[in-house]
Amino acid sequence: MYKKRSLWTPAFLAIFFIFLIAAPAPAAEEQAVEKPVALVNGVVISWETLEGEAAKMMEMSAMQGDPLDEARVKDIKRDLLERLINYELLWQESVKKGVVVSDQAVTDELQRLKNQFPDESSFKQVVEGMGITEAQLRSSIRKNIAVRRLIEEEVVNKIEVASDQSESFYKNHSEFFEEPEQVKASHIYIGLKEDASEEESRKVEAAIEDVQKRLNEGEDFGELARETSQCPSSEHGGDLGFFSRGNMDKAFEEAAFSLETGETSPIVKSSFGYHIIKVTDRKEARVIPYDEAKENIDNYLRGEKANEKVEEYVNELREKADIKRYL
């Protein structure tokens, strides 16, 4: 199935180099004593910033089993510097254009970032490990949002996609619009560790059997899921939404696709533990019609055009800017 493409993909962002967690720009009084690797309209990009970002990329590459040699590091630093220049130009332009970012927008973005971690302490540990405070992180987030809004207002929102382009894409990429059979299911889940002892296994089996008994006695599936399921979906009565084959544990998947709408499974053992599954809806395999796909196609094509247009926009800013490099 073709999915809506977000404009804010890594490939798109690479054009103007937004880091989600980036070292904040030095204060004006600090810039005078920092050794610049570049000056962008008089604003310092420090060697410290460049070396810090290069170190991140070197570490990431080493973790992936591809350590960088000296020649590649030099190339990476040159590329990083140009991206840092692009980002600084966009930030300066957002200030000129009066792009305003509310404190609430920053808080919301920060919370989305925190939600990617298991808990608050894990988040703080990572941030502290990078040598920045939460206040500095908020400053970076504010700049990122401002730059993103500038790009949206000055470039992305002005891009139009003609109907014949969308129709041509639909005809020439039919494989993107083939939607496989799907089921919508809820489940009640009791986890079982792979190395569980015999006693632990008996307790888990007894727990799921007790849930099954309560279901057989007429208790509501959703309420039981909220009370007993160990899956995060318990907050929503066990609802997992729609899924197709190949996205779940094999045993779970086979059981779910064998059920009719409204039917509840017996106890199913998967590689994660025990489940009781209820199928609440089904979708047969189909080809998504053009009218339904058009909005997503337009967004995708707009994203493709945006890559080119943003680069043009940044080049225009470069032509008007005073840029000095010391690399």
What does this structure look like?
This protein has 327 residues and is α+β, with helices and mostly antiparallel strands. It folds into 2 domains: 185 residues, Triger factor/SurA peptide-binding fold (Orthogonal Bundle), CATH 1.10.4030.10; 104 residues, Roll (Chitinase A, domain 3). Helix content is 53%, strand content 14%. It contains 12 helices and 9 strands. The strands form 3 sheets. It has a 4-stranded antiparallel sheet with strand order 5-4-7-6, with helices on both faces. β6 and β7 form a beta hairpin. α4 crosses α7 and α5 packs across α7. The protein starts with 9 loop residues before the first helix and ends with a strand. The N terminus is likely disordered.
In brief, what are we looking at here?
The chain is α+β, with helices and mostly antiparallel strands and 327 residues long. The protein has helices spanning 10-13, 28-31, 47-63, 70-96, 103-114, 120-129, 134-154, 163-172, 198-216, 221-228, 250-258, 290-320, and strands at 36-40, 43-46, 178-179, 182-191, 239-244, 268-269, 273-283, 286-287, 323-325.
